[in-house]
Amino acid sequence: MSDESNELTGEKAASQLISLAEAAKISGLSQGHLRLLANQDKIWATKIGRNWVTTEETIHAYLATNPRPGPKPRE
Q1: What is the tens place of the pLDDT at every residue in 20-74?
Q2: How many CB atoms lie within 10 A of CB 53?
Q3: N or C, which end of the chain has less CB nearby within 10 Å?
């Protein structure tokens, strides 16, 4: 999910950024898990200083994919 269309630039983009702490509250996932998803390029996030940030749109898009924990079902 980290293609160039998701690159954020400009003043408007900065107002759309939320911390991973806020994203965790929205999604019900932990900050650590969101960082893991970012490192695996499953969600867009970037580090500004020592803080990770993403967008609410990114979180909602990930949740819309209906991620399921656990092993994949057998066929």
Answers
A1: 999 999 999 999 999 999 999 999 999 999 999 999 999 999 999 877 777 777 8
A2: 20
A3: C
Tally of CA atoms within 13 A in the half-sphere of 60 that contains its CB: 4
Q: Are the CB atoms for 44 and 6 separated by under 8 Å?
A: yes
Distance CA 57, CA 11 (A): 17
Residue 39 maps to which CATH number? 1.10.10
Q: What is the reported pLDDT for 9?
A: 53
d(CA 7, CA 43): 12
Domain total in the chain: 1
Quick check: is 59 in a domain? Answer: yes
